[in-house]
Amino acid sequence: MADFYELGDRPPLGEVPARMHAFLVRQSRFGQPRDAWRREVIPTPACGPDEVLIYVMASGVNYNNVWAALGAPLDVIAERQRGGEPEDFHAGGSDCAGIVWAAGKDVENVRVGDEVVVHSGWWRPDDPWVRAGKDPMLAESTRIWGYQTNYGSYCQFARAQAHQCVPKPKRLTWEEAGCFLLCASTAWRMLMGWPPHVVEPGDVVLVWGAAGGLGSLALEITRARGGRAVAVVSDDAKKKFCLDHGAAGVINRSAFTHWGILPDADDAKAYGEWAKGARAFGKALWDALGERVNPRIVFEHPGEATLPTSVFVCATGGMVVICAGTTGYNATLDLRYHWMRQKRLQGSHLSNDEQAAAVTALVAEGKVDPCLSKTYAFDELPECHQLMLDNRHPYGNMAVLVNARRPGEGASR
Ligand code: NAP
Q: Is-contact 355 193, C-beta < 8 A?
């Protein structure tokens, strides 16, 4: 057996070469993603008893590996080393479509040769919380695969826990299948994981960053559930994309200036200006919808810039659900609106196995589109992350081919 294969060359099923291609970040390169991510050849990891090695056909590109490149807010390499792992690099990637190439001795849910997509919820199997059958996303040991763990989907052979594998929707090409699950599963948990605030037919859902990875899937899921999504974007050029992916209406946020941390409530002038902006945004929401109805769910991730407005426009008894603070972490809100109108501010992070499987089933049935934006070559991976950091990436979810030789392969419709 050769100890190394070029990308796209397949070793016999089940045989794993000693070395592989991978895109890595090293601490000495932390900074702009274009420079931080570099292709190297590294030893292929062994897989543990409950793990699989996946021959990656295509990978998605996600914002977490922009953070990994920057080395902030978390140095993921240092964090793993503190936990006893020896590697001085981060081989990332949290979205994957591929073929199970090797499986540990305790793996039962998949077999070598299975075509799978991989969700990125990782936890220790011996975690007492997990063993007790509780939601593993709330366990102490939970990590994001391919961000907080090593050997993700930017590797020729990715290492994952077997429970992360979901059957690949057959109708999808490798790149369609590889691009969506991190954002889709996160959006699903946000929109369906926090009862009673789950999307019901007719519900209005405000979606920030609606042409982005998370936002586009939130539009799709809301439509599939019979809800009415109002999309927020920064450019009219994105409107058609949002309407095509299920938005009932679109707001261009660049018409407003009241963003960021709330002014002091005692500063009547500054607060009045802010309130004027927030009310105008609320009116734009009604105009986009064609009805004076406030959103029962606000789908949040920009964070600092938008949270005050999200809480303000959220319906009485509604929920603002948030999974990130892309624009900053200082969340401010006017508590008067929050308690008097009995709103809920809910944190949410990735998804568990059931949630990943539920949204993948809708994708397999053709009810939710994976929102593939553009397919790139493996060596364009650093530039994809740079585009994302600069908010210049194509609408939806980007994919890179890893072992797939060309786009359009892998589907059996
Ligand atoms: P993305 O594709 O870059 O989309 C983010 C969108 O946010 C952009 O399209 C942009 O749209 C909008 N945006 C940028 N600046 C904004 C501002 N100042 N105010 C309002 N909107 C702004 O990224 P993504 O994949 O959707 O991820 C978004 C965030 O969620 C990232 O921070 C990511 O790390 C995080 N995330 C968290 C989880 C989790 O489980 N916790 C999972 C997935 C992603 P416009 O410019 O058109 O408004």
A: yes
Q: Give the number of residues written for the chain.
A: 413
pLDDT per residue as tens digits for the range 4-62:
999 999 999 999 999 999 999 999 999 999 999 999 999 999 999 999 999 999 999 99
* Nearest protein CA to atom 30 of ligand 1, as residue: 324
Q: In terms of C-beta density within 10 A (0-12 exposed, 13-18 middle, 19 or more buried), how is residue 133 classed?
A: exposed
Q: How far apart are CA 231 and CA 215, in angstroms?
A: 8
What backbone phi and psi angles, to 5 degrees, belong to 71? 75, 15
pLDDT for 49-66, tens place per residue? 999 999 999 999 999 999
Cα-flanking dihedrals φ and ψ of residue 282, to 5°?
Answer: -60, -40
C-alpha–C-alpha distance, residues 64 and 153, integer Å = 13
Report pTM: 0.97
Ligand 1 residue neighbourhood (C-beta within 6 Å) = 62-64, 182-183, 186, 208-209, 211-215, 232-235, 238, 253, 301-302, 305-306, 323-324, 326-327, 349-350, 388, 391
Sheet of strand 89-90, all strands in order from the earlier edge strand to the far edge: 38-43, 19-26, 89-90
Q: For residue 350, which atom of ligand 1 is closest to its CA?
A: 40
